[in-house]
Write a structure and sequence with these properties.
heterodimer, A: about 650 residues, alpha+beta, five-stranded antiparallel beta sheet, 23 helices, B: about 325 residues, Immunoglobulin-like, 2 domains
């Protein structure tokens, strides 16, 4: 049909350019600058050609640009596959397709590519603002698509925009049905490109001086915790993460983990809570010291790290319980203790000397620990986010020269002192504290709350937590990082806020974001099962889900059809005609319908014959109708009189 | 076998039973709908997006895919609605000459409260005319049909279709309207026109009754008898002028089938007669037509012209062809 190949009008080209620019804009900051420049140039070129009605460039030129663009992507990314390179290539191809845009077919293809480009944005961001922006983009693309199908006369931009809006709004119920009931499978279906999860921050399994301080500059949320009971005291909120055993003189690392059963003693009631962990591409699952339960698909190490069986690439939600007072590891094996005493030779000689001296003063381990903490407290040690850089003997320099550092400096120095004095010690990293959201009463733990502390092993007591940072800056533990570090230090805005209204907005926003995360982004297989169970669907198996989906889709489509097709009903605007039809309807219900070919006068005559008792009323109505409808003048009072007569008429 | 199957599909599924008199209301069973090629590509893109969403666990990807999928379903309803309940009535058609294009006007009445856009009409699936039918209005669409032969032309099956709003679905309805267009014989080329036969005696014709009073000169028209050309004036260089005479004798112009040269076949005769009719009408003269079995009395004017041309168009046709 000829409808397949009409040449596109200038208007359609503008709409397409605008729609694609809108969808592509968020990518501009993510791809190399030259790709943005190329895309903008090609779009401007297409606009210019359309504006002045010039011919499209030759295929050969476009092939040349494709080859150049692909080569450029390869140079920039080192590959043409994967997430980032794929998006870059898609943008280049799409811009080039614009220069081939001549027929309706090309335009439709571009519209579909535009929809696809929307989904690539979600690879990078799935926040509420992104979702809203992309919804706007989809609306605009859809309006563009509708604009392509006005074959006669273009009714102005309002008509396609309105139609697209209504079309999309009416599609929402069916979308929700599918979103809730479509069987979710745990991705990925095939191997993801290596760069699929680039740019995610979080704790690592190594620690050098400054690494946690760097993390503290990020206000990104690490996880959120909702407690079943009251939120424990801040001084008890030690969220356990990677445990670092091995020290090479500069870097602490986790090394090889031991696996075993969780064995502990406790005399307190457990704290029950649910954690929603943001993806961090590592395997740790954080829990309050000391975790007493394992979430599904995890293993636990001998030193109480909970490890997921697969790296955490998606937000996970798990229920946890912990004991905040406990004893464990009293009967630790000797090789383990030996590992916890090991120090590299040739590093930090002055610290070792200090440890020997302090050991002489205090033969008891507990006294020694108390002395070291007192030293941190009483000498002029300083807690800061931006400590001076340290050289080869980092602990020596910290203890005797700079005396200022962040939590990892204190934890490292303390552990080295302990090990030098023969006390088994290890560093535990994780998060400390968190911020209570008063709106919905859950705890937000940010990367800025990253912390490092120490566990020492004491005869008869097992592993005991010591936080040397608390000795230097008790506020860090009690009131959070913003209170502890000097005002001059850089901290993310969200962590340090003085304005009450800003805090309120922030907390409200975080509540919304939390719900968004839990219910929209975190709607996984597990969550789906949980949600359906709350509706009494005990076994949401694949087959049941499919059946429910089918039924719900049927209902939703029926409602949609009723909604869309209700506009088909014809309306009679003439009150006289409407009233007369009502009159005929009343008679039709009594078995006296007006025949299609019967005029009002004939009908009245027939009625008078068949129902003589109605003759008077019928003739009155009919006469008035004939005069109103076919007469020359039409008095509004007569119309009112006519409608009244019809209303009072009884067949 | 194939023909039988096609007939079965045509009569049962598509309800094609030949032209029906009167208007057609596009009720549900008259409208058919299928995805277009674009619709299939769109579904493929959605499938791809769904796969990507599963693989990358993109919740918003799921939402987008489902939103677009639901929109596709909705678009089907919209495309259907764009045709539903339209009332299609045959309109007027103007007679044409063989070799011209006939236009069948179709009245599309939209009594509903929603605008209908981009309704196409086509006979051959290659050429279509489009029309919008705003709410509570009647739109007129003229479907062109080539008219190669004289006689009666029927539009045959007209397909009314639409792809509005998204182009993902193609909804159509077959219209078999009882419409006909008269196709006059193609008039013979003017240059080769022999003069019409000179007026002579016929039934009820008064011959030589003191006529031929010279009334004046007018410019020469094709088909004027050379006998009436003012040769003297032409010789004076005033161009060709035709002498006009008052009096019935000269106006009584009869075009007679039997007077035509014997070697002409039926269509050639009709062509020539059509040419004469047109020329006589253009000259403003009264004329009559004699065909085997048909005689149209002497008259002048538009109605006479049309009557004569209709007689020529329908000459020799069986009732079934009319």
């Amino acid at each position: 049909m000829t409808a397949g190949a009409p040449v596109l009008s200038l208007r359609n080209v503008w709409w397409l350019l605008a729609a694609l620019a809108m969808v592509g804009a968020p990518h501009a900051g993510r791809v190399p600058w030259w790709i943005t420049a190329l895309a903008v140039t090609l779009m401007a070129w297409r606009g210019y050609l359309a504006r002045f009605n010039l011919g499209l460039p030759s295929r050969w030129l476009l092939l040349l640009v494709i080859a150049g663009g692909t080569a450029g992507v390869f140079v920039s990314y080192g590959t043409i596959f994967g997430r980032d390179a794929g998006v870059a290539l898609l943008i280049i191809m799409l811009s080039l397709k614009l220069l081939e845009l001549a027929t309706l077919r090309d335009a439709m293809l571009l519209v579909f590519l535009g929809y696809f480009l929307v989904i690539t944005n979600f690879l990078y961001s799935q926040t509420i603002p992104t979702a809203l922006y992309m919804l706007g983009s989809v609306w605009f693309i859809t309006a563009t698509m509708i604009g392509l199908h006005f074959a006669v006369r273009y009714p102005g931009p309002a008509a396609p925009l309105r139609t697209a809006g209504v079309l999309l709004a009416q599609s929402v119920p069916l979308m929700l049905v599918f979103f809730v009931l479509f069987p979710r499978v745990q991705g990925p279906l095939w191997g993801l490109p290596r760069d699929a999860y680039a740019g995610i921050t979080g704790l690592s399994d190594t620690m050098t001086p400054g690494s946690i301080a760097n993390l503290s500059l990020s206000d990104a949320v690490a996880f959120r915790a909702t407690f079943n009971g009251p939120i424990p005291n801040p001084t008890r909120l030690y969220w356990r993460g990677p445990v670092l055993w091995d020290f090479d003189g500069r870097t602490w690392s986790a090394g090889r983990p031991y696996f075993g059963k969780m064995r502990y003693e406790t005399n307190s009631a457990p704290v029950e809570y649910t954690i929603t962990l943001e993806p961090h591409s590592k395997r740790w699952m954080f829990a309050l010291d000391l975790p007493a339960r394992m979430p599904p698909a995890t293993i636990v190490t001998w030193d109480f790290q909970i490890l997921s069986t697969i790296p955490i690439h998606n937000r996970v939600r798990y229920e946890m319980s912990s004991y905040t007072s406990y004893r464990y590891g009293e009967e630790e094996r000797e090789p383990v203790l030996a590992r916890a005493r090991r120090l590299p030779e040739g590093y930090n000689p002055r610290t070792r000397e200090l440890a020997r001296r302090m050991r002489g003063d205090a033969p008891d381990d507990r006294d020694l620990i108390r002395n070291v903490l007192a030293k941190f407290r009483n000498e002029n040690f300083f807690y800061t986010l931006s400590p001076p850089p340290l050289g080869e003997h980092s602990v020596d320099e910290f203890l005797f020269a700079t005396k200022s550092g962040f939590c990892e400096h204190y934890a490292a120095a303390f552990t080295v002192l302990m090990r030098a004095a023969g006390i088994p010690a290890r560093i535990v990293t994780g998060y400390q504290g968190g911020e209570v959201n008063p709106i919905t009463d859950y705890l937000i733990v940010r990367q800025a709350d990253a912390h490092a502390w120490v566990e020492v092993w004491l005869e008869g007591q097992g592993w005991v937590r010591i936080d040397p940072t608390a000795a230097v800056s008790p506020q860090r533990v009690e009131r959070g990082i913003a209170a502890a570090i000097p005002v001059s230090d850089p901290l993310p805005l969200l962590v340090r806020t003085d304005y009450e209204w800003l805090r309120r907005i922030r907390f409200t926003w975080d509540s919304i974001a939390n719900n968004w995360n839990q219910w929209v982004l975190g709607y996984t297989q597990e969550r789906q099962r949980q949600f359906l169970r709350s509706f009494g669907i005990a076994d949401p198996a694949w087959r049941n889900l499919a059946a429910m989906l089918l039924v719900a889709t049927g209902i939703a489509v029926l409602i949609l059809a009723a909604l869309v097709l209700r506009k088909l009903k014809t309306t009679v605007t003439d009150p006289v005609l409407r009233a007369y039809r009502r009159f005929c309807g009343k008679l039709a219900r009594k078995g006296l319908p007006r025949h299609p070919a019967e005029g009002p006068a004939d009908y009245a005559a027939r009625l008078a014959r068949e129902r003589p008792e109605l003759a008077k009323a019928v003739s009155l109505v009919s006469a008035l109708y004939i005069s109103l409808r076919y007469g020359t003048d039409c008095d509004p009072a007569d119309v009112r009189e006519f409608t009244r007569l019809v209303r009072e008429f009884k067949a | 076998m194939y023909a039988a199957l096609k007939r079965l599909i045509d009569t049962r599924l598509f309800q094609l039973r030949g032209p029906q008199p009167g208007a057609i209301v596009l009720v549900q069973r008259r409208i058919f709908i299928l995805p277009t090629r674009h619709g299939v590509v769109f579904a493929a893109v959605l499938a791809l997006m769904l796969l990507g969403s599963v693989n990358y666990s993109l919740s918003l990807g799921f939402l987008l895919t489902f939103l677009l999928g639901a929109m596709g379903v909705n678009a089907m309803l919209y495309t259907f609605r764009n045709l539903a309940r339209l009332r299609i009535a045959p309109g007027r058609t103007q007679p044409v000459f063989a070799g011209e294009t006939a236009y069948f006007t179709v009245c599309i009445t939209n009594a509903s409260v929603t605008d209908r856009y981009s309704i196409g009409l086509t006979r051959d699936r290659r050429h279509a005319v489009f029309v919008d039918a705003p709410q509570s209005q009647t739109a007129l669409a003229s479907v062109p049909v080539a008219a190669p032969r004289r006689g009666v032309l029927r539009p045959g099956r007209i397909t009314l279709f639409t792809r509005y709003p998204l182009g993902l679905f193609h909804a159509w309805a077959y219209l078999e309207l009882d419409m006909r267009c008269l196709v006059y014989p193609r008039p013979e080329a003017a240059r080769m026109t022999p003069p019409p036969p000179t007026p002579k005696a016929g039934e009820g014709f008064e011959h030589g009754a003191g006529h031929e009073d010279f009334a004046g000169l007018r410019p020469y028209h094709l088909g004027d008898a050379p006998r009436h050309i003012a040769w003297k004036a032409a010789a004076r260089g005033q161009g060709l002028l035709t002498k006009q005479f008052s009096g019935r004798a000269d106006a009584e112009l009869w075009f007679d089938w039997n007077e035509l040269p014997a070697q002409l076949d039926v269509e050639a005769r009709l062509s020539r007669l059509a040419r004469w009719v047109l020329d006589a009408h253009a000259a403003g003269r009264a004329f009559g037509l004699r065909l085997p079995g048909v005689t149209l009395a002497l008259a002048a004017g538009r109605a006479q012209r049309d009557r004569c041309l209709e007689a020529l168009a329908l000459f020799g046709l069986e009732d079934g062809e009319r």
